[in-house]
Design goal:
Strand order of the largest sheet: 1-2-3
Number of strands: 3
Largest sheet: 3 strands, antiparallel
Order of helices and strands: HEEEHH
């Protein structure tokens, strides 16, 4: 079983990692293909892929999208989306560690009291 100090140390490490994230973007990167008709060709031709970063904006109830026009912009967007996903994962980890810390801190006084009762000379007299 982990100690309060160990859990607190893990929480601090998670906070440090969260603090080290310098840029992030909420959303997803999608590939789009455009179908166009060419003269003399019966079937439409797909052009692309074109990359778009999209995210839902709950304040306005709409999805906001922006086309990524260069390889550099696409790579930066991929890094920022990955950083956001890591941030969310760290938030969940922090939540779990904080819950565990609370349980350990609440259990500690009770367990100490029970140990003292078991080991006290007056509790042995009745046996």
């Amino acid at each position: 079983m982990a100690t309060v100090e160990e859990v607190e140390s893990q929480r601090n490490a998670v906070l440090e990692e969260m603090r080290s994230i310098r840029a992030m973007t909420r959303g997803t990167i999608n590939e789009q293909f455009l179908k166009v008709r060419r003269k003399g060709i019966r079937e439409p031709v797909s052009l692309g892929p074109y990359y778009v970063i999209s995210r839902y904006e709950p304040e306005v109830g709409k999805t906001k999208s922006r086309r990524l026009t260069s390889e550099e912009e696409l790579e930066q967007a991929r890094q920022d989306v990955a950083a956001y996903q890591r941030f969310v994962s760290l938030c969940r980890e922090f939540e779990g560690l904080t819950e565990k810390l609370g349980e350990l801190e609440r259990a500690s006084p009770e367990q100490e009291a029970k140990k003292k009762l078991r080991s006290s000379p007056s509790s042995r007299k009745g046996r």
